[in-house]
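Re: [help] complex structure
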Amino acid sequence: MDSGELEHPPAEELQVGPILLALADDNRRRVVAELYERSDGERLCASFDLPVSKSSRTRHWRVLREAGLVHQRSIGNGLYMRLRKDDLESRFPGLIQAVVGAP
Amino acid sequence: MDSGELEHPPAEELQVGPILLALADDNRRRVVAELYERSDGERLCASFDLPVSKSSRTRHWRVLREAGLVHQRSIGNGLYMRLRKDDLESRFPGLIQAVVGAP
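Output below.
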């Protein structure tokens, strides 16, 4: 699987509803917050320590990706993820910062 | 019914998860956006023109109120609603502005 097989909505089509729904979940919001701190780079999806089943993890990645919050790609045997920080900031200025900074 | 009978979480207990979940819905987000424009005052709940049933409207008001986005009170026979703008801005700086300004 390469990144071309994964659905990534274009930046100009990102919708705030699915973005907010994706961010409403505590686990997904934690992943976004951790990626936000290192958005210059990518992180191995498997490296996130979430207290959920493997199938739930897979679903969380899909929700994040389809909402347009993250970009995923395969390198070797690993699936990597990065926050689409520039796309998000351009379309929803201040939103991600406000969410990840929330108490 | 006076406002004392309606549950309004205190400002210091507002949680971002329920706030985002409440805002993820298009109708509720529209209500918040309209209140944001006139947050100096209140608006009659019945004055919002939502394309949903009466029971759905009632549920939307409850979700908004329990998340801490709005304050509701009865005056005479009418139920009024205002955005808790100061509480929200104090606890989640920039969040509501980013959401209501989203395309």
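The beta strands of chain A are 43-44, 70-75, 78-83.
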